[in-house]
Specification:
This protein has about 90 residues and is an alpha+beta fold. It has one domain: Ubiquitin-like (UB roll), CATH 3.10.20. About 25% of the residues lie in helices and about 30% in strands. The chain is flat, with a radius of gyration of 17 Å. The chain starts with 17 loop residues before the first strand and ends with a helix.
């Protein structure tokens, strides 16, 4: 049985990090890439997220794999333009 990894305390607020699976987004050459199911430590107080070094290295290799990215399912996201005139109103 694999031992559960302890993420330690949050560097921001010193709260114990909790193991979780997250979605991590990256902007690469103007394109949004979302990696799902990333094992991470998440602070339940402030929301800070960290990953182990080996996970970070795996993600770096994954997002360089243009063939895998091109075959991945696509999602649509809303795009809203910021309008300074609306803020002043």
């Amino acid at each position: 049985m694999k031992k559960k990894y302890e993420y330690g305390e949050c560097e921001i607020c010193n709260t114990s990090m909790k193991a979780s699976r997250i979605k991590q987004d990256f902007w690469i050459r103007g394109r949004l890439i979302v990696v799902e199911g990333v094992p991470a430590g998440v602070c339940p107080r402030c929301g800070e997220r960290i990953v182990k070094a080996d996970v970070g290295l795996w993600i770096a290799k994954l997002i360089e794999d243009s063939d895998r990215i091109s075959k991945a399912p696509k999602i649509a996201v809303p795009t809203i333009k910021f309008d300074e005139k609306e803020v002043a109103a």
